[in-house]
Amino acid sequence: MLVELNAGRIDPARLLDLSRVDGLRESGARGGVVRLGAMTTYADVLERHAGELPGLAQAVETIASRQLRNRATVAGALVLGDPSSDALAALGAAEASVIVASAREGERTIPAHAFVTAPGECDLRPGELVVAIDVPVADGPVAYAKAGARNAMARAVCGVAIALHTGRRRAGVCVVGAAPTAIRPDVAEDLIAASWDDLAGAASRFGALVGAAVDPAPDARGSAEHRRHVACVLAARALRRLAA
Question: pTM value?
Answer without folding.
Answer: 0.93
